[in-house]
Model the fold of this input.
Amino acid sequence: AQSVTQLGSHVSVSEGALVLLRCNYSSSVPPYLFWYVQYPNQGLQLLLKYTTGATLVKGINGFEAEFKKSETSFHLTKPSAHMSDAAEYFCAVSVSSTGTASKLTFGTGTRLQVTL
Amino acid sequence: DAGVIQSPRHEVTEMGQEVTLRCKPISGHDYLFWYRQTMMRGLELLIYFNNNVPIDDSGMPEDRFSAKMPNASFSTLKIQPSEPRDSAVYFCASSLRVEAFFGQGTRLTVV
Done:
């Protein structure tokens, strides 16, 4: 079975500062990895995903993440935080041998606060 | 496409009443997932369907919960009877390949 650990339930950064949200996974087979963002009273929106190929993946809103198999990590970064980035971020893992959808296992989420 | 559509957005009901949550997936998607989000337990998968057939319902908390997908464009999640501990946000998501698209959720409050 797969699992996800997000380090830090709350992260606070200043506007313009680097954003780093940490995610470690556990999976017995090569995983698919995702970052989702949730704004208040909204559903989850996909930021980016890793399936195969290039280990550095770029997503929407200037976010990117790097898959590091040796560290079982998939940390999310953004060079310069904006006030509009304040939200809850979820790392998720799924496993699929056929390239089709599979159930997602989510981390507990990290709430990002951006201050002036 | 309008995305995954859930109804109602908010539901307040009394303990013991039946509650039905509805979901319309994105047209053409062949996977449908029901998740529940609470402060205590985070996001939990309840059940998912592939081509309208339930594949994994191991996350359904107890027999009071049931889900159906009578056709490719509609699914329901029913709780009967409802209890206060069922209060949560329930999300429906659909997928064609790897990426899942989520609806806006239904906030259920059982008093």
Remarks:
- The mean pLDDT of chain A is 92.
